[in-house]
Structures are given as C-alpha cells and as structure tokens.
Amino acid sequence: MSPADARAALDKVGMTRTQMAAICNCPPWRHAAFGLIFAVLIGSISISGTAQVIGTAVVLVLTGLLVAHDRVRYGVFVNGYRRGATLPLTLTYVGVMIVLVVTAMFMRLNGFTLLSKLALAAIALALATAVSVKWSRVFRRELEGRS
Amino acid sequence: MTPVALDPHLHAPARLQIATVLANVSSAEFAKLREITAVSDSVLSKHLAALVEAGYIRLTKTPLDGRQRTWASFTRAGRKAFAAHMRALQALVASAEQAVAAQ
Q: What is the pLDDT of residue A93?
C-alpha cells in the first residue's frame, strides 16, 4: 500500500466516524426519558420498600423499552461504560447516583416529607438528563476527532 | 521502531468501514452497516463472513420489530487487529510525510 492509499484509508475512517456521529444524535425526549428512569428509581427508593420494588420493576421495563427503541432507531447499541472520552463522565455519574441512592434511603428511614422526596427525584431527573446530553456530546465529539 | 504490518483482512474499504463502526459501538445492525458502507446485501454478507472467518467479528440474530435481525460486534482479536491496522496506516502516512520534509 502506498502512503497515498494509506492517507485515503484514514480519510475514509474519518468520514465513517463523522457519519456515525450524525447517526448517534439523540432527540431531546430521549435524554429526558433517560432522566425519567433515574427519577423513578430515586423517588421510589425514598418513599417506601413497596414503592422501591414497584419502581425497580418500572425502571427495568422502561430501560428495556429504551434499549429496544435505540436498536430500532439507530441500528447500533452503545454501552455506556465503553472506554474512551465518555468513561470519566460515566464513572462520575455512577458516583453521583450512589450518593442520591444513599440520600433516598436516608430520607425514607428518617420520615422526610413527600415533597422533599419528590424534590430529590426532580434533582435526579435534572442530573440524569443533563448527563445524558453531555455524554452524547462527548461521544459525538470523540467520533468527530474533536475530543 | 517496531515494524508495523497492514492487516489484509481489513484492507478492503468496506471492511475498514465496518471495523470503524464496530470499534466505536458495542454492536451494529446489518442494515445500518449496509447504509454506512453503501454496498449491496450480498457484498456486505461476504465481507462480514470474511471477518467472521478471520475471528474478528461475531454475528448474532435477534428478533426485533417482529423480524430476525443480524447484529455484528467485534471480538477481542478484531478490536486488537483494527487498532494495529490503524497504527500501521498512521505510520505509513507519517513516514511519507517525514520523507517529504527531509527532501
């Protein structure tokens, strides 16, 4: 292979990655749906043991629906824990979610008001939605070679 | 410097495109790979079969939307081979640029 052919091959790789970045552009509702899953999880944990069981079942169903949607809509499946520029963000988010789960348990065991528990769920919704938007941007930037 | 070798299994442009996709996602569906590579079903099937034969990818059938769909994903060997092939391409381009700069 000549250097010119190698350059052409690398250009093709770059074009393919740019093509993928365009494909993997999620609509706003997709990010909100991701946020909703975590709001249900955190909210249900903070309310009661029964609510947690129901909430977990709802979360599993919603996650399954979201994964099925992604597979049909995008034709690819991307693991959130993939190596690359997105990994630090994923791990930070997991850490934040652990803090939220512990806070939800604390609220449940110490009889906090329903309003404060809903506020915690709203925080989870906002955080998870924001992380989904950021994750998607970092992923597409990495594909476009701008990370 | 360690000599770098191009991988003949990844030499074809369509296979390089397939590998590029699979290096960035966990799995990709047949129709999406066809869209990206812009080749016919039969040509894509041949490329996928060659990559399976080389041990670089695995294919799985999954029911989706009432139909059986084929999904491709990299094996560990495939991921390594693609990374090595990319290094070889980059080394080739870099050596040519160095030669031009030296003249």
A: 95
Chain B stretch 43-82, residues whose beta carbon is closer than 8 A to a beta carbon of chain A:
62, 64-65, 71
User: What is the reported pTM?
Assistant: 0.87
Q: Which residue has the tokens 């041990």?
A: B55
Does position B2 have pLDDT exceeding 60, yes or no?
no
Q: How far apart are CA A9 and CA A61, in angstroms?
A: 43
Residue count (chain B) = 103
Task: Spell out the residues 6+ positions from residue A134 whose beta carbon is closer than 8 angstroms to its own.
Answer: A89
Q: Is there a contact between A77 and B31 if contact means CB atoms under 8 Å apart? A: no
Q: What is the ipTM of this complex?
A: 0.86
Q: Tell me what the mean pLDDT of segment B98-102 comes to.
A: 77
Q: What is the mean pLDDT of residues A50-78?
A: 94
All residues of chain A having their beta carbon less than 8 Å from the beta carbon of residue B65 are 72
Please tell me the number of Cα atoms within 13 Å of B68 on its side-chain side.
3
Q: Is B23 on the interface with A (CB under 8 A)?
A: no
